[in-house]
Specification:
The chain is of the alpha/beta class and 287 residues long. Helices cover 36% and strands 25% of the residues. Strand 2 and strand 3 (34-35) form a beta hairpin. Helix 3 (71-79) packs antiparallel against helix 4 and helix 9 (257-270) crosses helix 10 (272-286). It is globular, with a radius of gyration of 19 Å. The termini are far apart. The structure holds 1-O-phosphono-alpha-D-glucopyranose (G1P).
Length: 287
């Protein structure tokens, strides 16, 4: 099964990244030489996605602009013979078709996804939370696409977290039906520490059925008074079943400063031109 479309909610304030995110959307903060959101979109493209629906607010139009062509800039780079930069700029501008819909009020992740309802006609579509990025060529959304193909059920990405962190995530419990694939039996948004046995946390990767929009429109405000995607998924799961897939690879949470800074170093070290001097500079700082 091909998953063509991803809904990417980017309307949040990004308070954890302030003051850096005061004017620049948190999704546009650079991790090495690309904005955070580009890594997320690249993961979607690796999973076969070709259309992105950004759920935005009026301060976030630069997110769409990043994935649009910039002919003026491209002309300048071509004239100056700066072909490496030209290639990078063109790549960002042509990797996906871009659509956007406004979330006019911040009423929660479920509400944000619900805003995209009219732009999603496909039986299954992906949702990605832009703060989480997962690295590894065969890791992340592509694993969910494979699971949905095999079992014909919606699937969400999970990772194990320590018991004292379960109140930071949507948590799922379930029976393992294949290594790393679980049939979900329960799902709770940010349960209190000690109140939920499983340590499988939702990490912001979902392949959902279009029917989920109906469930979203029926859920009442949940945790934090928000319309929670987890609550809508739970209702769906109880009726029709849903899978959780343990994500391979490494996850960075862009809203966490240790993860954010580590991600910059991780991608810097992957660039052979930078790796040597960067390793030396970091060693010197630490030493
Ligand atoms: C959201 C979801 C939560 C999930 C998390 C992953 O929470 O509601 O279920 O575990 O993303 O990043 P947020 O971090 O937006 O509060």
């Amino acid at each position: 099964m091909k998953i063509r479309k991803v809904v990417l909610p980017v309307a949040g304030w990004g308070t954890r990244s302030l003051p850096a995110s005061k004017v620049i959307p948190k999704e546009m903060l650079p991790v090495y030489n690309k904005p955070v959101i580009q890594y997320v979109v690249e993961e979607a493209v690796r999973a076969g996605v070709s259309e992105v629906v950004f759920v935005t607010n009026r301060h976030k139009s630069v997110v769409e602009d990043h994935f649009d062509r910039n002919i003026e800039l491209e002309d300048m780079l071509a004239r100056a013979g700066k072909f490496d930069y030209l290639k990078a700029v063109q790549e960002a501008g042509s990797m996906v078709e871009v659509m956007a819909v406004r979330q006019k009020e911040q009423l929660g992740l479920g509400h944000a996804v619900g805003c995209a309802a009219t732009l999603v006609q496909e039986d299954f579509f992906a949702v990605m939370v832009g703060d989480d990025f997962i690295v590894g060529d065969d890791a992340g959304l592509v694993q969910l696409v494979q699971a949905v193909e095999k079992y014909n059920k919606p699937a969400i990405g999970v990772m194990e977290v320590p018991a004292d962190k379960i109140d930071k995530y949507g948590m799922v419990a379930g029976e393992e039906i294949e290594e790393g694939v679980f049939r979900i039996s329960d799902m709770v948004e940010k349960p209190a520490v000690g109140s939920f046995d499983s340590r499988l946390a939702i990490v912001g990767r979902y392949v959902l059925p279009r029917d989920i929009f109906r469930y979203i429109s029926c859920v009442k405000p949940g945790k934090g008074g928000e319309i929670q995607l987890t609550d809508a998924m739970r209702d769906y799961m109880l009726e029709k079943g849903m899978l959780a897939v343990k994500m391979k690879g490494r996850r960075f949470d862009a809203g966490d400063w240790v993860d954010y800074l580590s991600a910059g170093i991780y991608f810097g070290l992957k660039d052979e031109k930078l790796a040597g001097p960067l390793r030396e500079a970091v060693a010197k700082l630490i030493g």
